[in-house]
Amino acid sequence: MESTDSSNASPISIVSVREALIRMEDTIVFTLIERSKFPLNFAMYDESLKVPGFSGSMLEYFVKETEVLQAKIGRYENPEEHPFFPDGLPLPLVPPENYPQVLHPAAATINMNKTILEMYINELLPLFAGMGEDGNYASAAACDLACLQALSRRIHYGMYVAEVKYREASEEYGAAIRAEDRKALMKLLTFKEVEEMVKRRVAEKAMVFGQDVTLNMKMNVGKCKVNPSVVSRLYEDWVIPFTKIVEVDYLLCRLD
Q1: DSSP 116
Q2: Are 219 and 213 in contact (CB under 8 A)?
Q3: Shortest CA distance to 254 belongs to which of 142, 172, 138?
Q4: Are the beta carbons of 226 and 238 closer than 8 angstroms?
Q5: From the CB of residue 107, how many other CB atoms can be counted at a distance below 10 Å?
Q6: Is 24 in contact with 240 (CB distance < 8 Å)?
Q7: CA distance 100 to 122
Q8: What is the spatial distance between Cα 72 and Cα 89, in angstroms, rounded to a whole number?
Q9: Minimal CA–CA distance to 78: which of 110, 101, 109?
Q10: Mean pLDDT of the chain
Q11: Looking at the DSSP assignment, which residues form a beta bridge with residue 219?
């Protein structure tokens, strides 16, 4: 097996990757805050309430149909974007963008969105959305989609993290890849101190972004739109573990 050379000159660094991940934290927190304006609206996720001509819940229908439109304007030509319903998406109607080839081509085969969708509906959403129904299904579904796409982009960005780490220590990573040793790769990718720092930072962002700010710049400290502990748990239980799974899956494909 040999390393591919196609991306060696691509503009990517640990600094640029870190900055991108920090910006994604902002997006995730803000999307959770927006979704928290609506109650759970369980009917949107009840697959027994069929949409005519579609097999799935109202949310799944909303996501799939929105992705069809977004595919037409080229969203999924961006290697950082991954559809939740990739089968049968139309080709773009706009000229293609010349995205830099940073990742190994095998990255296109990695998609964790089914797992992300199940986690979001069954585990995360009940932690911060109040019980009840208000009938604002379209607005709540739009917020759900924003949350899902933000989480998907952040988790799949792990492939860029893995690419940077591979380039910085190709011999060490290469040995584990050739041995197909998932445990060794997971150990190489794990930095507990960094993970703890990220959990603290996203909780702090939830605290700051979720305040009601008045004209005299005083905030109602302690009254957050989304509990900071929920955001910290989101990263601890799902975002960080899912990202490392993506990283390992990518690295195992990194050598031909």
Answers
A1: H
A2: yes
A3: 172
A4: no
A5: 23
A6: no
A7: 36
A8: 8
A9: 101
A10: 92
A11: 213
Q: Tell me the two tokens of residue 147.
A: 């949350």
Overall size of the chain counted in residues = 256
Q: What is the pTM of this model?
A: 0.92
Residue 149 to residue 168: CA distance in whole angstroms = 29
pLDDT of residue 33: 98
Which two structure tokens, joined as six digits, stand for 79? 């290697």
% of the chain surpassing 90 pLDDT = 85
The residue with tokens 């996501």 is: 63
Alpha carbon of residue 55 to chain centroid: 25
Q: How far apart are CA 164 and CA 16, in angstroms?
A: 10
C-alpha to C-alpha distance for 160 and 142, rounded to whole angstroms: 28
Indicate the burial class of 57 (C-beta count within 10 angstroms; 0-12, 13-18, 19 or more): buried
Q: 102, 163 in Cβ contact below 8 A?
A: yes
Query: What tokens appear for 28 in the block?
Result: 């995730």
Helix, strand or coil, per DSSP, at residue 131: coil
Give CA–CA dist 73/241, Å, rounded.
Answer: 32
List, for residues 48-103, the tens digit of each pLDDT value: 888 888 999 999 999 999 999 999 999 999 999 999 999 999 999 999 889 989 99
